[in-house]
Amino acid sequence: MRLSNLADYAVVLMSAAARQCGSVAIHAGLLAEQTGIPGPTAQKLVSQLARAGLVVASRGSGGGVRLARPAAAISVADIIEAVEGPIALTSCVAEGRHDCSLEGNCKVQPHWGVVNGAVRGALADISLASLVVAPEPRAPRPALAGDEIRL
User: Fold this and answer.
1) Which residue spans traverse the membrane (predicted)?
2) pLDDT 10s digits, 11-34
3) N or C terminus of the chain: which is more exposed, having fewer CB within 10 Å?
4) If we measure between CA atoms, which residue out of 68, 75, 72, 60 comes closest to residue 24?
């Protein structure tokens, strides 16, 4: 499972916006420059994020991009869905999709909704605000039998 580049860039752009401005407008070109995201891609993302109600974009002097609500109230799931649409790990959890050749005989299909909900829930539990602070160092995992030891 992998996010598209656009979804990844949207999270990067939103994180930069939260770090730089919060509720103060910042020029999209400056966000593009700071993140390394190409200008046209940044503009496209700003449009998609604005349509989803995550940012407010205004033109003219004093214009720019600002978060539509506090970073703590925006989740990673919100950002991904603004670009990708609803999170659906398989076609059988997507609304109205009936294009699986195994449909009707699949014993796993009834469980995909639970799996999909868990993944979406995990992404919904990560706020944009948490992405703008340095992560806490993770404790090393204990060695397991069969682990290779390198010197």
Assistant:
1) none
2) 999 999 998 765 667 888 888 999
3) C
4) 68
